[in-house]
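your task:
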Amino acid sequence: MDLLNQTIIQDPFYRFNEENQIWITNSTWIYSTEFVLTDALNYAQGYTLVFESIDTAQRLLADLVINYDLPRKALVVHQFLSIMLPDEIFADVPEVDLIIDADGWGTPAAKLADFSQFSLGPSSEWPAIKLFFEWDNPILKPSELMQLSFPPAYVIYQ
């Protein structure tokens, strides 16, 4: 709906506009937002940013799969703190693989602890990990990852 709200596309549900919007499915999209905490907020209290749109994103991807007869889609969510996804109960959407990867940099022991906690949790359908060439010290080798009892199916290198 953001493309519609920003007037980048016309209403796809009006007349034949849907046919003119097929290009959207052939593009890669990144959704992001930025915000600034002002001095008026008490930083000592701590705040939680709640992102309730994981299920919404899954449903949007599912609609694309169903409406355009596309293969399953993957939704990758990067997690490096346990408080990032405090409520790990997400919708089970058959058309979408929800992948929660262990993000963040550190030692192999720290990386594997995060991997076990985040990527092998109940919401992640595929084990996944993100590795950093410059910041992981030392970076885990593919052979080390494949020796795990549940090796990652999805590895991101940055």
Helices lie at 2-5, 17-20, 54-67, 108-119, 142-146. The two ends are 30 Å apart (CA to CA). The chain has one domain: 31-157.
